[in-house]
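User: Can you recover a sequence for this backbone? Please restate the input before giving your answer.

Assistant: Of course. Working from this structure:
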């Protein structure tokens, strides 16, 4: 399982949820993991503990981790984060753009600052981090890989979450455009599109049995996904097993992108 042995990975927003599961999975695969947190290092303590446990399961790995602060929407903080990671380890091989937020509200009532904030974190943040990673990848031999945490909402509209939906559809073209631009430089750029996953971003329904039932009723596989199931796709895309894949989004969504309402051929009267 040590597909990422010797690789140095940076996972943004990895204090919780899917980012945490990616950090742990990468550690299980033998990578050194830089755990990005937003404000204070205590946010990332739980992830670090789990990463250390993962290192213990990988015998003779000698793996390292580091905690690194940055608000990914801020250029100066992103630059500092990259110089800390590259300064300490000399090299970065894998970037995961995972940090993300959403804000609910009817589109006509949304405050501009809320709209801007979601785009700043989810889209500008992914661009800023990708830019730093690509500059580094181009500065030395061996290329590198970037994996974006997108969403099923890169294609499915999400009423009352306009900025989120726009940020993720923007991420689709961020992935494809950068992939094409750097395909001949040994740099692969892909995305994962999770569906409804049990993480803090979904605190509105994960612990509410009735609401959770309602959510899961819309999912063809009949259940929400786990962060670990999503992290497994990141590990695949980061590894040499995906060496000929670039510019793609793999959905980990239990079938949500399959137009679940068409399970019955209602349009043909069945
Ligand atoms: P989460 O709230 O647990 O994780 C978000 C992480 O991003 C947190 O650790 C938070 O501290 C960090 N973060 C927020 N703003 C930041 C900033 N400005 N700079 C750095 N870090 C910041 O939720 P999650 O579900 O694990 O979300 C992770 C990613 O997965 C997001 O991009 C989200 O859009 C995406 N996603 C989640 C689901 C789902 O159902 N949970 C579905 C599709 C996509």
């Amino acid at each position: 399982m040590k597909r990422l042995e010797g690789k140095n990975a940076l996972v943004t927003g990895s204090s919780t949820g899917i980012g945490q599961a990616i950090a742990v999975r990468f550690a299980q695969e033998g990578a050194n993991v830089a755990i990005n947190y937003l404000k204070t290092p205590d946010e990332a303590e739980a992830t670090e503990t789990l990463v250390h446990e993962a290192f213990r399961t990988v015998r003779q790995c000698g793996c390292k981790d580091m905690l690194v602060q940055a608000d990914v929407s801020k250029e100066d903080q992103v630059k500092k984060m990259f110089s800390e990671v590259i300064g300490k380890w000399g090299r970065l091989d894998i970037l995961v753009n995972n940090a993300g937020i959403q804000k609910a509200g009817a589109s006509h009532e949304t405050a501009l600052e809320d709209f801007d904030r979601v785009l700043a974190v989810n889209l500008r943040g992914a661009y800023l981090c990708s830019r730093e990673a690509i500059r580094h990848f181009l500065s030395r031999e061996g290329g590198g890989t970037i994996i974006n945490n997108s969403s099923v909402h890169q294609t499915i509209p999400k009423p009352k979450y306009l900025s989120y939906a726009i940020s993720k559809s923007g991420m689709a073209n961020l992935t494809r455009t950068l992939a094409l631009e750097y395909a001949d430089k040994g740099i692969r750029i892909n995305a994962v599109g999770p569906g409804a996953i049990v993480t803090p971003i979904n605190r509105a329904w994960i612990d509410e049995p009735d609401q959770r039932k309602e959510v899961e009723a819309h999912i063809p596989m009949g259940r929400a996904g786990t962060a670990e199931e999503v992290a497994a796709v990141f590990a695949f895309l980061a590894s040499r097993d995906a060496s000929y894949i670039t510019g793609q989004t793999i959905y980990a969504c239990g079938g949500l992108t399959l137009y679940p309402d068409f399970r019955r051929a209602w349009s043909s009267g069945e």
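That completes the design. DSSP finds eight helices and seven strands in the chain.
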